[in-house]
Write a structure and sequence with these properties.
By secondary structure, the chain is α/β, with parallel strands linked by helices. 33% of the residues lie in helices and 21% in strands. The protein folds into two domains: 243 residues, FAD/NAD(P)-binding domain (3-Layer(bba) Sandwich); 215 residues, FAD/NAD(P)-binding domain (3-Layer(bba) Sandwich). It binds flavin-adenine dinucleotide. The site of flavin-adenine dinucleotide has 33 residues, from helix 2, strand 3, helix 3, strand 6 and helix 12.
């Protein structure tokens, strides 16, 4: 124990001294809204809202700009050699979300911080190297012919600050801006439903769930209102919708029954799906999941949502479904940002890339993760919107750009085709989904028709947990996750509404 404490002290001292070193090395950022960055260190313009990072000189490190801090962008940043490149990440969030475990945070199985990985930990150079940065901003436009991206700051919560624009010149650009939830143009979804994609979504779900639980216990609430408040509706029976429904039913069985005993008979979960749940899994696993969900109290409704109103949804057959919490999880498609980019598109509207993940019509632009897809001319299929695709593309592209950088092709327009090496090849490792009650599905087949191991039950649940624990990026978060799981197992979920 003493040795352990000593080790922690040593590592925190080292961190403190490295952060004080980095703060002394790094030029100060101006807090004045009209200035984006201060100093002539890189030859910036510093006098207007259109300030930014100018082009790099030939004797400076080339600059790789990464749009997005998700699975693809972060895996890329982790692998890029910062001796060869300066890295500038532009994203509206300063962390990566470990999405496979996000559903668990909605009901307090895990804490929010356990699934959020700060970017500075993924790529420390971003906090310490003079030419590397993280900018809390959205990219708004791209000028590939001048190697420039236009960005706008995200100033949510800073009441006195309006967003302002700035520009960044890049030598290499990696577009990893992800996707957005599909709503199929159904009225009211954006206004009344909660999506489950970001940590703040999970926080909103948890707050709403606990608020409804407490309100329904207060005198004066009618029976009908109680039933509505405690009706959790999930739309979309893909892995995310099913996992979230499983987490909710676990929460109800184990925690609500014990701690909200007065209202335990009013709380229900309904999962609405237009086709069949978990359509990418094999028939046997699907049947198992259906049986298990029903057994744990989830009502499965086959239907299509026509309209979403503040307290009820209306299905195609006219059925009204009152709800207190509505979670929307019906798949993803290209974001408005991707739609507006004047770049070639792959089937489905994603940014079109060749076999080396380059956008072929422009120099030095690459795209990875959910926002990109192979161009039809490559003859390759569109890859699924999965973390395992995004992560492997990020890893592959980092090694490609490292090769190019080592060969002297890091600066804008300097790379040659013969430095590319092997094209990107994706091999599916299988799918997993937890369904609550210590049960999960594991499908290790390469495709739905392929041969291979597929299993369900407690052993699968154990494999699911072990696999994701090892995939969590940092030791810090791995430790948090393990401790959260143990605490939940022994003491139950955290149901405080802070
Ligand atoms: C709840 C949930 C559970 C999931 N579970 C699994 C699973 O178990 N297994 C699996 O393989 N996959 C899973 N997925 C899918 C997986 O998370 C995605 O495929 C993966 O996140 C895609 O990575 P990405 O980097 O392309 O996009 P994202 O991870 O979505 O990251 C996109 C980034 O781009 C940023 N961005 C957006 N617009 C801009 C802009 N204009 N400028 C700059 N930055 C921008 C975003 O803020 C974000 O940081 C799950 C997804 C969800 C939501």
């Amino acid at each position: 124990m003493a040795l352990f404490r000593k080790l922690i002290q040593l590592s925190s001292t080292a961190r403190q001294s490295s952060s004080s070193l980095s703060s002394s090395l790094k030029p100060k950022l101006s807090m004045t809204p009209s200035l984006v960055l201060a100093g002539s260190f890189w030859g910036f313009s510093t006098t207007s809202r259109q300030a930014g990072l100018g082009p790099t000189k030939s004797d400076e490190k080339p600059r790789v700009v990464v749009l997005g801090s998700g699975w693809a962008g972060c895996r890329f940043m982790k692998g890029i050699d910062t001796n060869l490149y300066d890295v500038v990440c532009v994203s509206p969030r300063n962390h990566m979300v470990f999405t496979p475990l996000l559903a668990s945070t909605c009901v307090g199985t895990l804490e929010f911080r356990s699934v959020a990985e700060p970017i500075g930990r993924i790529q420390p150079a971003i906090s310490s190297e003079p030419g590397s940065y993280f900018f809390l901003a959205n990219c708004t436009a791209l000028d590939p012919h001048n190697h420039v991206v236009h960005c706008q700051t995200v100033t949510d919560g800073a009441d006195s600050l309006d967003p302002w624009d700035f520009k960044i010149s890049y030598d290499k650009l990696v577009i990893a801006a992800g996707s957005q939830p599909l709503t199929f143009g159904i009225k009211g979804v954006t206004e009344h439903a909660v999506f489950l994609r970001e940590v703040y979504h999970a926080q909103e779900i948890r707050r709403k769930l606990l608020l409804n639980l407490m309100l329904s216990d207060v005198p004066g609430v009618t029976e009908e209102e109680k039933r509505r408040l405690l009706h959790c509706v999930v739309v979309g029976g893909g892995p995310t919708g099913v996992e979230f429904s499983g987490e909710l039913s676990d929460f109800i069985i184990k925690d609500v029954h014990q701690r909200y005993a007065h209202v335990k008979n009013y709380i229900h979960v309904t999962l609405i799906e237009a086709n069949e749940i978990l359509s990418s899994f094999d028939d046997r696993l699907r049947k198992y999941a259906t049986k298990q969900l029903v057994k744990s109290g989830v009502r499965l409704v086959h239907g299509i949502v026509k309209d979403v109103q503040p307290e009820k949804i209306i299905l195609n057959d006219g059925t009204n479904v009152p709800y207190g919490l509505l979670v929307w999880s019906t798949g993803v498609g290209p974001s408005g940002f991707v739609n507006n980019l004047e770049l070639p598109k792959a089937p489905g509207g994603r940014i079109g890339v060749d076999e080396w993940l380059r956008v072929p019509t422009v120099q030095d632009v690459f795209s990875i993760g959910d926002c990109s897809g192979f161009l039809e001319s490559t003859g390759r299929p569109t890859l699924p919107a999965l973390a395992q695709v995004a992560e492997r593309q990020g890893k592959y592209l980092a090694s490609q750009l490292n090769k190019i950088g080592k060969a002297g092709g890091g600066h804008a327009n300097a790379a040659k085709d013969n430095e590319l090496g092997e094209p990107f090849v994706y091999k599916h490792l299988g799918s997993m989904a937890t369904i609550g009650s210590f049960k999960a599905l594991v499908d290790l087949r390469q495709s739905k028709e392929g041969k291979g191991l597929s299993m369900a039950g407690f052993v699968s649940w154990f494999i699911w947990r072990s696999a994701y624990l090892t995939r969590v990026l940092s030791w810090r978060n791995r430790f948090y996750v393990a401790i959260n799981w143990a605490t939940t197992f022994v003491f139950g979920r955290d149901i405080s509404r802070i």
